[in-house]
Design the sequence.
C-alpha cells in the first residue's frame, strides 16, 4: 500500500486546538480539538479515525480552510491555512459523505458551476466536466435534477465535484457514511484507483476501521479531540500490544512451556485449543513449533490471525 | 470507474487572464441564480404574481378613492419601486440562502472565491429580475391605469431604476449578513427586510407627512431620495435637496458597508463553526 513518492509533507499540523462556544446567554465551551500534531507525507492516504464526536470533521474542516483554529498552526502544501487560505483553496478540494447540492440543478450544471468557482474558462471547463461525468459514470444522469438522484449517484457526484480543480490534496470526510455495503466497496475502489492514477495526497476521515485498513498508509486515532495513537496500521497494532493470534489444536499439557518463549504475550487454552498471542507470528511461529516438537506435543491444526484496526480501536477506546 | 487510469485534464491551472478568471467565478453565481430562478415556481411568483397582484390592488384602491391622475402615478411608482427593490435584493440574499437551504455552503466556500464573486454574480441576476419586474409593472399600469412612467422621458425612469437596483444591493447584503450570523433563523429577514423601510421612505405618501423624527430617519434611506427625484418630475416638490445625488451616495455607502459586514460575517462563521453547522 506504500505509494509515497516524496518525503516533503503535504500537511503539517502542530498543536492544533479548537473549542466551540454555544448557547446564550451562558456560553458553554465544548473542546473539539486539543493540541493535535501530525505530518502527512505527499502522495499518502492518511486516515483520521475515531468515533462520532472525536473531532475528525473539525480537524478536516480546519485543513480545508472552512474553520479557523483557536491555537496552533496548520500548513497545507506549505501554505498556512489561516494566513494563505485563498491559495490553499486553489490547490485542494473536499468531498464528504453528507455532501448536498442545489436541488434543481443537474450533475452537469453542478460540476459546471463548481468548475467556474475555480475560474476555469470554457476551453478547460467543458472537457473537464464531460470527462468527470464519464469517469464517475454520471453521463446517463447528467440532466437529472439533483433531488431525483439516488444516494449512490449523489455520492459519486460529490466525489466528481472534488476533482474539478485537479487538487493536489483531496479531503474526504466520511465518504462512505450511510451507504449500502456494495456502494461503499465501489467508492473505496474508486479512491484507491484515483490515488494510483493521480498520485495525489488524500486525507480521509472515517469510523469504519476496515475502510482505513484497506486504504490508508498511515492513520491517527482521535478521541475527544486528542490523538491517542498514530502511525502505519502494522506498527500501531504492535504499539498497542495486540499482537498476532496463533491458535493451535494440541493434545496433552506439554504446550504450557510456550508461555515462557520470547515474544509470547499471552497463552491460554480451551477444549484442546491453545491460543497464543505473539508480537509477530512470522518470527515466533518456528520457535513455538520447535518447542512443541521437543516436548513431544503433536499439533493437528494451526490458525494465525492478525489483529485488525478495529481491535486496535477498541483497545484504544478503553 | 472504468477509465480512472489516466488523469483527466492534466492542467491544474485555470486558463485565461486573471481578470477573465475573476469574471468566470462571478458567472458561476449568476448562472446558479439564473438556473434556480427558471426552475422554481416560487421565483416565478416573485417576479410575476406578487408584483402584479400588488400593483392591481393598490391601483384599483386609489382609482376607487377617486384620486387625481398625478396621485395615481405617485402611488404606483412607489409600488414599482418597492417590488423592484424586493426582487433584486432577494437575488443577493439567495447567494447565501440557496446554499443554506441545500446545506451546500461548505462545499461552495471551499472553492477559492471571494465574497464579492458571490455577491456580484447574484446581484447581476437581481438586475435582470429587478428590471423585468419594473418593466412588467410599468407595462401593466400603462395598460390598466393609463399611467406612463416614460412620460417625462427615459432619463428619470432610468435614474430611478438604477437607484433602486443599487439600493437593493445594500439591503441584500444586510440580509445576507444576518443569515451568516444567525443561520436560517434570520431567513424571514429576506422577505421582511424591505418592509422595514416601507413606512419611512414614502412609498405611498410624501415624506412631508411624516413626523419630524421619522423624516430625519427617512433621509437616511436611499429609496426616499430616488422616489422624491422621480416624483419631482410629476410636480411634487422634494423635501430634501439634491435627491438623486443623496440617493446614489447613500446607496453606495450602504452597499460598501453591507459588503464589509457580509465579508466579516463569513469570516466570523469560519471562526464560530456556523459554516459547518449550516452544512449539517
Sequence:
Amino acid at each position: 500500500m506504500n505509494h509515497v513518492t516524496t518525503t516533503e509533507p503535504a500537511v503539517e499540523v502542530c498543536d492544533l486546538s479548537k473549542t466551540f462556544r454555544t448557547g446564550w446567554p451562558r456560553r458553554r465551551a465544548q473542546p473539539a480539538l486539543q493540541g493535535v500534531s501530525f505530518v502527512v507525507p505527499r502522495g499518502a492516504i492518511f486516515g483520521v479515525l475515531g468515533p462520532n464526536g472525536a473531532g475528525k470533521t473539525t480537524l478536516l474542516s480546519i485543513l480545508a480552510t472552512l474553520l479557523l483554529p483557536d491555537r496552533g498552526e496548520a500548513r497545507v502544501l506549505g501554505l498556512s491555512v489561516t494566513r494563505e487560505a485563498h491559495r490553499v483553496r486553489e490547490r485542494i478540494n473536499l468531498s464528504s459523505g453528507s455532501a448536498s447540492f442545489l436541488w434543481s440543478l443537474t450533475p452537469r450544471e453542478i460540476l459546471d458551476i463548481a468548475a467556474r468557482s475555480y475560474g476555469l474558462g470554457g476551453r478547460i471547463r467543458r472537457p473537464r466536466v464531460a470527462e468527470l461525468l464519464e469517469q464517475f459514470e454520471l453521463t446517463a444522469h447528467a440532466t437529472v435534477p439533483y433531488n431525483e438522484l439516488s444516494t449512490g449517484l449523489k455520492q459519486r457526484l460529490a466525489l466528481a465535484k472534488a476533482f474539478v480543480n485537479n487538487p493536489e490534496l483531496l479531503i474526504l470526510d466520511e465518504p462512505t457514511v450511510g451507504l449500502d455495503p456494495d456502494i461503499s466497496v465501489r467508492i473505496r475502489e474508486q479512491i484507491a484507483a484515483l490515488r494510483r492514477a493521480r498520485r495525489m495526497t488524500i486525507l480521509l476521515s472515517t469510523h469504519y476501521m476496515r475502510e482505513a485498513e484497506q486504504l490508508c498508509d498511515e492513520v491517527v486515532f482521535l478521541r475527544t479531540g486528542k490523538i491517542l495513537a498514530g502511525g502505519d496500521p502494522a506498527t500501531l497494532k504492535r504499539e498497542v500490544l495486540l499482537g498476532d493470534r496463533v491458535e493451535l489444536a494440541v493434545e496433552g499439557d506439554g504446550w504450557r512451556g510456550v508461555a515462557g518463549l520470547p515474544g509470547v504475550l499471552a497463552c491460554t487454552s480451551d477444549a484442546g485449543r491453545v491460543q497464543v498471542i505473539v508480537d509477530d507470528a512470522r518470527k515466533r511461529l518456528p520457535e513455538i513449533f520447535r518447542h512443541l516438537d521437543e516436548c513431544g506435543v503433536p499439533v493437528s491444526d494451526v490458525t494465525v490471525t492478525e489483529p485488525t484496526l478495529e481491535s486496535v480501536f477498541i483497545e484504544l477506546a478503553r | 470507474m472504468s477509465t480512472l487510469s489516466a488523469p483527466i485534464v492534466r492542467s491544474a491551472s485555470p486558463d485565461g487572464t486573471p481578470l477573465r478568471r475573476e469574471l468566470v467565478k462571478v458567472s458561476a453565481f449568476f448562472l446558479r441564480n439564473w438556473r434556480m430562478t427558471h426552475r422554481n415556481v416560487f421565483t416565478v411568483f416573485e417576479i410575476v404574481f406578487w408584483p402584479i397582484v400588488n400593483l392591481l390592488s393598490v391601483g384599483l384602491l386609489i382609482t376607487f378613492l377617486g384620486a387625481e391622475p398625478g396621485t395615481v402615478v405617485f402611488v404606483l411608482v412607489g409600488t414599482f419601486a418597492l417590488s423592484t427593490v424586493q426582487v433584486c435584493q432577494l437575488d443577493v440574499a439567495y447567494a447565501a440562502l440557496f446554499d443554506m437551504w441545500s446545506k451546500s455552503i461548505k462545499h461552495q466556500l471551499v472553492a477559492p472565491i471571494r465574497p464579492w464573486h458571490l455577491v456580484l454574480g447574484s446581484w447581476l441576476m437581481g438586475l435582470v429580475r429587478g428590471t423585468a419586474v419594473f418593466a412588467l409593472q410599468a407595462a401593466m399600469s400603462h395598460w390598466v391605469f393609463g399611467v406612463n412612467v416614460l412620460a417625462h422621458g427615459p432619463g428619470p425612469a432610468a435614474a430611478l431604476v438604477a437607484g433602486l437596483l443599487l439600493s437593493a444591493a445594500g439591503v441584500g447584503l444586510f440580509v445576507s449578513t444576518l443569515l451568516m450570523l444567525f443561520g436560517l433563523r434570520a431567513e424571514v429577514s429576506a422577505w421582511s427586510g424591505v418592509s422595514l423601510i416601507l413606512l419611512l421612505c414614502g412609498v405611498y405618501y410624501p415624506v412631508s407627512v411624516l413626523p419630524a423624527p421619522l423624516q430625519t430617519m427617512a433621509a437616511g434611506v436611499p429609496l426616499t431620495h430616488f422616489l422624491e427625484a422621480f416624483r419631482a418630475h410629476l410636480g411634487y416638490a422634494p423635501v430634501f435637496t439634491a435627491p438623486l445625488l443623496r440617493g446614489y451616495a447613500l446607496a453606495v455607502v450602504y452597499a460598501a458597508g453591507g459588503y464589509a459586514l457580509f465579508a466579516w460575517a463569513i469570516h466570523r462563521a469560519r471562526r464560530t463553526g456556523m459554516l459547518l453547522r449550516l452544512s449539517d
Summary: The CA atoms of residues 54 and 245 of chain B lie 29 Å apart. The two ends of chain B are 28 Å apart (CA to CA). Chain B touches chain A through 52 residues (CB under 8 Å). Residues 1-12 of chain B have pLDDT under 50 and may be disordered.
